[in-house]
From TrEMBL:
Transmembrane feature ranges: none
InterPro entries assigned: GP_PDE_dom, PLC-like_Pdiesterase_TIM-brl
Boundaries of every GP-PDE domain copy: 1-228
Species name: Candidatus Planktophila sulfonica
Protein name: Glycerophosphoryl diester phosphodiesterase
GO biological process, one term: lipid metabolic process
GO molecular-function terms, A-Z: phosphoric diester hydrolase activity
């Protein structure tokens, strides 16, 4: 089971920053997870919420601000270019989540694919694009079917959607998997790999190992390795 750092080693560092991903490397993560949004001038940046309020104290929407304005409000913000270059330099796989719904619609998938192809050495690491949007996953298939995709599931996602998705992986949340462990077997029976988020507690980490999870996404990579007794 691979351990991917959720927004970096975000239990110990500001999420989605270079410090968080450097921390993830130090903590032995096999790869990185990130969230991506487009600025007004179509620069893909690592950011989770629609606004900058929670992390930067700025109520502005990422989609309505230029990259320069976003950087001024939060100097630590990473572009997708910077993130991918760092991942390649450290030989770490990446899970890139495109956020929806957004003002730019499905333009984000087009830009993400452009950036993936433009990154030197990207073929040396594992790259996957994830989304809770079924339409986003299907658009990825149309744009570039060679890029691995993960269809993310939350509590209200229908099994029918997951089953019909073209994604190579399914990503349920740990809460749903804990309540209904049979989901893991159902996903495996579809011939899909299993990526689970966000797993920090000891019992949940051990459950994922027992259920044959392929990628465990955690805020605490070093703790997960300790629980699993990885060297």
């Amino acid at each position: 089971m691979l351990i991917y750092a959720h927004r970096g080693a975000s239990a110990d560092f500001p999420e989605l920053t270079l410090a968080a991903y450097e921390g993830a490397v130090a903590q032995g993560a096999d790869g990185f997870e990130c969230d991506v949004r487009l600025t007004k001038d179509e620069v893909p940046v690592l950011w989770h919420n629609a606004t900058m309020l929670e992390r930067a104290g700025n109520a502005g929407l990422i989609a309505e601000m230029t990259h320069k304005e976003v950087s001024r409000a939060y100097p630590q913000i990473l572009t997708l270019d910077e993130f991918l270059a760092f991942a390649v330099s450290k030989k770490k796989g990446v899970l890139i989540e495109t956020k929806h719904p957004v003002i730019s619609g499905n333009r984000i998938e087009e830009v993400v694919v452009e950036k993936i192809h433009a990154t030197k050495g990207i073929e040396k690491i594992e790259v996957a694009v994830m989304s809770f949007s079924w339409f986003a996953i299907e658009k990825m298939k149309r744009i570039d079917p060679t890029i691995h995709t993960t269809f993310l599931m939350h509590r209200n996602t229908s099994w029918f959607q997951a089953k019909l998705s073209s994604s190579a992986s399914i990503g349920p949340g740990i809460n749903e998997l804990r309540e209904e462990p049979i989901r893991a077997e159902r996903i495996k029976n579809l011939g899909r790999s299993l990526n689970v988020w966000t797993v920090d507690d000891d019992a949940d980490i051990k459950l994922c190992e027992k259920l044959g999870v392929d990628i465990l996404i955690t805020n605490k990579p070093s703790h997960a390795r300790e629980v699993l007794r990885y060297p």
